[in-house]
Amino acid sequence: MKNKKLVLAARPNPAISTEIFRLEEKQLSSLSDGQLLIKNHYLSVDPAMRGWVTDMPNYIPPVEIGTVMRSFAVGEVVESKHSDYAVGDFVYGLFGWQEFAVSDGFDVERKVNPDDGPLSINLHVLGMTGATAWFGLTEIGDPKHGETVVVSTAAGAVGSMVGQIAKARGCRTVGITGSDEKAVRCLNEFGYDAVLNYKTATDLAGDLTKACPDGVDVYFDNVSGPITDAVMNQFNIGARMTVCGVIGISPEHVNGPRVSRTMLVKRAKMQGFLIFDHMHRLSEAVAGLLPLYKAGKLSFSEEIFEGLSSAPRGLESLLAGTNQGKVIVKL
Amino acid sequence: MKNKKLVLAARPNPAISTEIFRLEEKQLSSLSDGQLLIKNHYLSVDPAMRGWVTDMPNYIPPVEIGTVMRSFAVGEVVESKHSDYAVGDFVYGLFGWQEFAVSDGFDVERKVNPDDGPLSINLHVLGMTGATAWFGLTEIGDPKHGETVVVSTAAGAVGSMVGQIAKARGCRTVGITGSDEKAVRCLNEFGYDAVLNYKTATDLAGDLTKACPDGVDVYFDNVSGPITDAVMNQFNIGARMTVCGVIGISPEHVNGPRVSRTMLVKRAKMQGFLIFDHMHRLSEAVAGLLPLYKAGKLSFSEEIFEGLSSAPRGLESLLAGTNQGKVIVKL
């Protein structure tokens, strides 16, 4: 049986383009004891790939030139010499941009139940995106019923999940986003109680005060920078803040108000968060997210690219920001 | 029976001087049911008093003009119509700068065992200072055996306690202080493994790297500002930081590097800390501190002023920084 795969052909120079990947076709060798063969159904396309294809040290080693592109995927076990996996099992893990993956089980994050919903949701709602929102909000932010939760990049993949989980927990949810179109989605689709467009706001601090009449208890931050300064000024005593992204810190703008005094006066907590630290607990996140999904409380968007060879275009679209929702490749 | 007390006669204008207090003598009225009469033995003099005597809103209301100056004290119950307290009990609480205090029990923080050591230690090692160090370090910093704990204002009342508690827990302790004299005390008296004088350091970052060969796991911060920036650059993944004071943020220097990226990359935690939130759990701190004190593992200094009328001079000395250790008034 033959396997088609996308290998990393070159490092970005400087930008990522479809040219840095190469399609290869190779004969699959037969399985050894302890291995399983996975037929991928859906491949994931993620912003983190920007880091994986460079040779800069990261929380995870770079993808080597000439090897299959690293990616999360959902697949079906089609052959097994591994006692934990049977033919017909569905699995989620780092199976790469390829049609088939030979695995020893270590790269399987969890078994997937196909009755939970479309297989593709295991790449976002019940995958990395969902788990990031789930653990970052529930373990660090720990929102209580009636508290106010503010989310930056409120319409994004992670932010929109955070807003919906917080809403389902009975919180007042306030989103911060960068376009009127996204603001409308925040209100109508993701159920935020209030939304601010930071790009058109002339008085962000004043708008935040109005949107958060009881102050801010939890802040799920994907941006840092001046938006975060404004939110921190509205903190209640004992506020909690999840630092999930820092895209608002541009090289020209690395300085800003010191936060220590706010942290002290408000006895607030701040904690950096990386989902890879929590992947071994993915099933806990799924156990929390699945009831919300089944109850129709988790809205999301997918943009599906068809066929293995479309994956690099999917990544290009994601990095250019022209995608509509979670980018997925269907095989 | 007559009671002598120091009342607040005026607000600071602008500095605190001995003139803002006035000594008064008044007849004590007899106790009502539910009250107890406390004879103060030792009065506390604390930096927090700077805030209490102004009329600016704080975490605690200002001391009213004409009323007794608020202060922690250790005293003896000399008369009681309160079922929880008997004559001869020793108590710690907010009894004020006066010889006798009439209490309804609400201002008693805890009963004191005179066999634990000199009564005065209940004003610092087993009082607010100790509890600040204890909860701030153990609950927020949560240091594990073998970890590296960095303390700013390492020779100060709180900092020196933090260093010693961390040392007793088997940590490598690194102190940052502002004079060679204090640096010597840090090493010889408070048992720090390494100490840095930030005022004479020409390369604080380099010195920190040498002093913390395994990075920084816990940072107990009493200063904020550039010192804190340098320490944060040495954070290990999962570092914890207690924000206990921000004296390093001067009005001319409110800007500094944004901390969010450090917090994210290191998945570090930062939390503001105010001891008044934890006063109802003071006995827990004492339970932790007492064995250390009895084992001779808690070094401290006291500067005793004799007589009630010396309290304002004690405060002046403390605010001028000419004191040697914890300032206490002995009655």
List keywords for this structure.
homodimer, 331 residues, alpha/beta, Quinone Oxidoreductase, Chain A, domain 1, 2 domains, 7-stranded mixed sheet, 6-stranded parallel sheet, 9 helices
Describe this structure in words.
Chains A, B: GO terms for molecular function: oxidoreductase activity, acting on the CH-CH group of donors, NAD or NADP as acceptor. Chains A, B: Keywords: Oxidoreductase. Chains A, B: It holds the Pfam family ADH_zinc_N. Chains A, B: This is Alcohol dehydrogenase. Chains A, B: InterPro entries: ADH-like_C, ADH_N_2, ER, GroES-like_sf, MDR_fam, NAD(P)-bd_dom_sf. The structure is a homodimer of 331-residue chains. Chain A has 331 residues and is an alpha/beta fold. Chain A folds into two domains: 2-124 and 300-330, Quinone Oxidoreductase, Chain A, domain 1, CATH 3.90.180; 128-276, Rossmann fold, CATH 3.40.50.720. The first copy, chain A, is built from nine helices and 16 strands. In chain A, the strands form three sheets. In chain A, strands 3, 4, 5, 6, 7, 15 and 16 form a seven-stranded mixed sheet that branches. A six-stranded parallel sheet of chain A has the order 10-9-8-11-12-14, with helices on both faces. In chain A, helix 2 packs across helix 3 (157-168) and helix 2 (128-141) crosses helix 8 (282-294). The radius of gyration of chain A is 21 Å and the shape is globular. The relative contact order of chain A is 0.15. The mean pLDDT of chain A is 93. The A-B interface holds A 221, 224-225, 228, 243-246, 249, 254-274, 277 and B 221, 224-225, 228, 243-246, 249, 254-274, 277.
